[in-house]
Amino acid sequence: MGGDGRPEGARTFRAPSGLFAIGIAVLLALFLLGDAVARAGWGRMLLLAPWILLALWIVYENAYVSSVRIDDEGATVQNLLRRTSFGWKRVRSIELRWQLVFLLDDGRKLSCYGGPAKAGPMRRPGRVGDASEPAGVRSLAEIEERWEAAPETADAPITRSWDWPALIALGVIVVWAVAAILIANA
């Protein structure tokens, strides 16, 4: 906490299962590519690689990339290939339904695919009636605290953009896959 009671620094909220899913997918991709090199050589592995990388890209986009990043000035919400940034003064309300939802001053509701989510209280085995506060509720409280403590200068406009690095990576993978098909059929 800062000297004036406001939290400091940026914080990123992401679904916990996303890191696990991308980790397993990367390990599986490395195993498959290594196995292809061992069995068929580098040339054949390069023909197989775009398909494995496409599957890895899909897991990355669906499980890992969606997140909510907050700081003292505002928030950035990444939902798959779309990124929305806004200052705290653009937020009318914040709700926690099945996922975090921002109601913005342009009248739109922005659901956050990654980040805090509604879940039941965590129960510890062996203890009857002992339940801690769910992580989603704690995260919502932290986000609301940042929103309420935002300075008057936190009025950045609402901007929506595409995740260009991910789209460029997809384009490279698709071109590589088409080249692999043409080379394999030649």
From TrEMBL:
Alphabetical UniProt keywords: Membrane, Transmembrane, Transmembrane helix
Ranges that cross the membrane: 15-34, 41-60, 164-184
Organism this protein belongs to: Microbacterium hydrocarbonoxydans
Protein name, entry field: PH domain-containing protein
Domain of life: Bacteria
